[in-house]
Every structure is written in C-alpha cells, then in structure tokens.
Amino acid sequence: MVPPPVRRQLSLAGTATTATSERLANRHREVEPGGESATFITKEHRSIIRMSHLTVDLGGRPGLDCRGFCSYCYFKHVKGTTSFGCRYCLPFQKGCDYCTRGVREGYEGFKSLRTVADETLANLQVMSDDIDRITISGGGDPSCYPEFRDLVELLGSMEAPLHIGYTSGKGFDDPAIADFLIDNGLSEVSYTVFAADPDLRRQWMHDPTPEASLAILDRLCGAIDVYAAAVVIPGVNDGEALEETCAWLEERGAKGLILMRFANRTDQGLILENAPLIEGQQVHTVDEFHDIVTDLNEKFSMKISGTPLGDPSIGSPFAILHEPDLLKKLPRVQKRATVITGSIAAPFIQRILSIRGSTSRVVRVRKEIADLITADDLAEVNLKRLEDVVLIPGRAFVHDAEARTILSADGVDREVVRGPDMLTADAEMSMGMTRTEVLDKEIEGFSALINTINRYGR
Fold it and tell me: What's the Cα-to-Cα distance from 417 to each of 348, 403, 453, rounded to whole Å?
C-alpha cells in the first residue's frame, strides 16, 4: 500500500515511505531533490519531460478485506472513533477525517472496479505530466481485491511501471498469478514474507495457502524488484528462523528485506486503544532490535534494514551525525526553544542541535515514535523543563489549541509551533534511497527545524 496514515508512519521524527525509482529504457535520469517529479535527459535530446506518480486507491478494510488479521496486525482490537487532533484540523475544531477515520483506516470496503477506473481517469485528467509509475494502494490487501486481474490488465495497458506498495500475498492462491503480473508490467512490490517457513505463515499470518504465496514471491524475486518485509516477533520468527528467511530471499534475488520490530504497548505506538495485540508477548528492546538488523546486514549481501532502527548500509536515521562537514552547513541555532519528540529520536536530535549551538533541551516523551505523539503524551511532560516556545513534531496527533493549553497549564503562556514533517529517513524510506539522498533529506529537515527555532524562539 502507499503509506496509510499510521501503518507507514511509524517513524522516528516524521518520515514517509517511498518506493525506489524506475530506470526507463534508453534514458539517463536526473532526479530533482525533494520533488515528486523528475527531469529526464534522453540520449536523443536534452528536452525536459515532467514525470508524475499516479496512485490508485482500492479502498478496503484492515482485517476484513485481507482474509483476516495477522496475529500481529496493528489494527487488531481497534476501539472507538475518538478524534486525536492533528495539523489538518481547523484552528477552532479538534477532529477531522484524517485524525478520526483515516488513522484507523476506516474505509467502507473495496471500491468497485468501475469506481476505481473513474477515479483513475479523473486523476489523469488533472495531471499535466507524463506518468512514470503507477502504485496500487488501499486499506485492504490488494491481493484480495475481487477484480484484481481486471484491474492489473487495465493499469498495465497504460504502459507505465506498476508498483504494489504492499501485499501480504494472502489473497494469491495460484502461483500463475506471478507471471500474469510480470507480463502486465509489474516492476516493483513490497511483499510481506514474515517467514520462509509456510507453517509460520499459516499460523501467524493466517495464510490459507502459504506454499502458493511463497511460490509467487519466489517467482517475482527472479523477475522484478522485490522488497520483502517481516514483523519480527521474539521466539517466533527471529533467531534461526529469521536467518533462514534471509538466506531464502537472498538466494532468490530479493533486493532487500525490511524488518519491523513488533509493537505491543501504547508507548511503542499502539494509540488506538488496542494494546496489547498479543497478551504476554515479549518485545525486543530498541537496542536488541538494532543489533539484530546490524548483524544480519553484515551476514548477507542483500540489503537488510529495520524500523525503528536502522539502516546500517547508510547509517541512518540521522546519518548526518557521521558527516562533520555537512553538519557545518546547517544554520546556527540563534534562539531558545524546546523541541519535544519521541524517546528514540530525542538523543540524536539533541546532539545535532547542540553541535549547531543550541543550549535548549530536547524533551523526550515516553512514546517512542514522534509521529504518534498524542495529547496524553504531552500531558506527562514536566512543564518546568520547557522554554516559552515549544516545537512539537509536525505530524503529531494533537490539536494545536489543545497542545498549547496542555503545555501552558503551569500558568506560563507558551507558544506551540509544529516542526517539519520529516527530519530523517527510516528504513522503509531509505530502502529505496542512496546515502546522498538520505543526507540531502536530513539537511533539508534540520535546516527547516533550525530556521523554525530561529523564527519563533526567544
């Protein structure tokens, strides 16, 4: 899937997922930093062609349009429809579609093929640039879409590379679907493997045909760019099982494997009143998980990265800490303001800001992930540690007015400002990026953060 509001925002300081760019035949490509579009210089001439990314949204509901919840699914046990508040809310009203329905992926089911086709046509009519890729997205699993073959044939006729942003493969029962996808232009897929052991897939993913799902993954690995993904659960698919999965993927030619640490508590990101997902299940600490990712990346030639930490091949998140010359290019911090962020990102951000002259604290909350900070997290902050100006993560789930009320509860009328959306790239984003691209993203993000401090600080 193209990043749904929460599933793909389990980031450190505000990140997003991106698929890798496609090489088009007989063209040398130059990608403009920070943009969705790209400039291509052909062999024949140097005229500029603007390219765009088309997303096709299938709709669908987690747990219902994916052949049932996986045992570890983030959307199990979701309760209520409380509005968190977010940057998209009106100043005078807490709650909008994004922070009420969207965060829960509260779709009404898969859209009909006619509806999808009509929406795609409407999007095409307002796009002035050529299409360089088409990504199939949705709240359910695309492999379970009832009219999947017709959809792929329709999109394939547009002669642009097809991407499936995410699939578990649980909806695929016939291995022949792999060749069908390849023949119709599929060029990249993010495919949840969980384990190369079909019995583990059957038990934990509730995959009714795990052998077929793995056979399809096998065939795709040999023909297109495949980025496998696995939520890692201690005592289930880690250790020897995980090494066997890595070896299985590498032998078949997968481009990379993204490991995701299993979350089971509210402070780890379960903000939908649905913790724990698995009663009594152990969870790796952040450091334990980082060590697993680093060790596996050294053992295998296939790129292996992890979220929340990290991407050993690039040194991200916060790879800029290893680049003194680039740190010197960041603006100097000239004013005082408190930055509030998640517990994982806080020490990294503090180091970078201190190097650039900041004497103010970066305050961590218990919530590990900055994007998933809510009003409850802000309510636990020691207000005595705050400056008169406070920056909160750009994508935190809290209404601006409520954040100001909470952070001024000691009688000090504090100004609360949102920082930039992204400061770094987590593993899902960096998997399709070069080290230079990640560093460019960090320079952009931290320059924006420091400029915000200098604009609003005291």
Answer: 20, 9, 9
Asked if 131 contacts 158 with a C-beta cutoff of 8 angstroms, the reply is yes
Q: Both tokens of residue 11?
A: 């980031």
Query: pTM of the entire structure?
Result: 0.86
Coil, strand or helix at 80: coil
Mark whether 248 and 346 lie in a shared domain: no
pLDDT tens string 432-453? 899 999 999 999 999 999 999 9
Instruction: Dig out the tokens for 250 from the structure.
Output: 């590498």
**Residue 11, strand partner residues:** none
- Other C-beta atoms within 10 Å of 126: how many? 6
- CB proximity list for 242: less than 8 A, separation 6 or greater: 195, 230, 232, 259, 292, 296
- The H or E element that residue 293 is part of is helix 286-299
Q: Whose CA is closest to 455, among 358, 389, 378, 382?
A: 389
Q: Considering 260, 281, 307, which residue would you say is the last residue of a domain?
A: 307
Q: Using alpha carbons, list the distances in angstroms from residue 194 to 9, 15, 139, 237.
A: 20, 23, 19, 7
Residues 342 and 296 in one domain: no
Which of the listed residues 263, 278, 307 is the one where a domain comes to its end? Answer: 307
Same domain, 278 and 405: no
Q: Distance (Å, rounded) from C-alpha 33 to C-alpha 19?
A: 15
Cα–Cα distances in angstroms (integers) from residue 405 to residues 37, 84, 331, in the given order? 40, 15, 31
For 170, the token pair is 């649980």
The CATH number for 241's domain is 3.20.20.70
Tally the domains of the chain.
2
d(CA 397, CA 95): 10
Domain with 330 in it: 319-456
- Quick: pLDDT tens for 276-333: 999 999 999 999 999 999 999 999 999 999 999 999 999 999 999 999 999 999 999 9
What's the token pair of residue 109? 């089911």
Tokens of 129: 């640039």
